[in-house]
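note to self — DONT lose this again. spent like an hour looking for the file last time. sequence + predicted structure for the chain T wanted, 88 res
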Amino acid sequence: MRGQWVQCWVMDTFVIAWVMLLLFAMFNNYVMYRLLKQRNRTDLMWVSVVSTVIPVALFAFWPGAITLMAFPLIQSVGMLVVMRMVHR
């Protein structure tokens, strides 16, 4: 074994950021769908989709820490808007 080169596959931080962003987006939309389905208000699902598409598009066009940090902020605002619309 001595002298052999061991190949190690390491993901780039950019790839990890994309994977986590998309996983959290899917999870947040699933949670919002379940919440809206219980209240028979799936017509408001567009708010959740828009609040997911905006940060993903921002990160796609301008990848960086600031646009990545915009994701939870915009998702939170989207969920707040949905909650206020549901309770009307």
